[in-house]
Structures are given as C-alpha cells and as structure tokens.
Amino acid sequence: MTSKEIIGDITDHIRKLGGDFAAWSVAIARDWHDPVFESRQSEAKDDELICREAYTPASARTVRDHFVSQGTAPGNGESNQEGKVVYAYRKLHP
Asked: Which among 27, 41, 51, 79 is least surrounded, fewest beta carbons within 10 Å?
C-alpha cells in the first residue's frame, strides 16, 4: 500500500474508536512475524490494532512520522528502519 492509503486507513480506524491520537502508538515491524509485532497482537483487543504493509521501508517511516507528528506515540518497533509493516495500537495506559 502507499503511505497515503495507509495513513487514511489508520486515521479512519482511530477516529472510529474515539479519535484521540494521543491514546495510540504507531510502530514498524520487519515483517508479519517480527516478535515485537506478534507480542503486541497478543495484547491488543480485536479493535485496538490495525496493521498495513507499505511498499517500502521509506513509506513505512513516512506513515510513522506522520502519526507521531499528530501526537501518536512511537511504539516499540520504531527503530526498525528496514521494516515495511506499519501497525498502530491503542495504548494500555494513555
């Protein structure tokens, strides 16, 4: 997906669940089997996690940076510069 498509999907998801960007984190995982991503999946409720795969790591970073500039916290996977899987999740304690 393009960064624009991912931003739209994640924005819609957050708005559907209350719209408070500060209550969410966004991160990047290397792939769908990244341990950080898998641990977050097991902790999140069904509606509190959204993930999308970007075409490139640069696009994934663009998405992460966009949401961080909107007040969303960077998640545990934010240092993964080669990852393409962008995921956002509602923080347990905002």
From this structure: 79
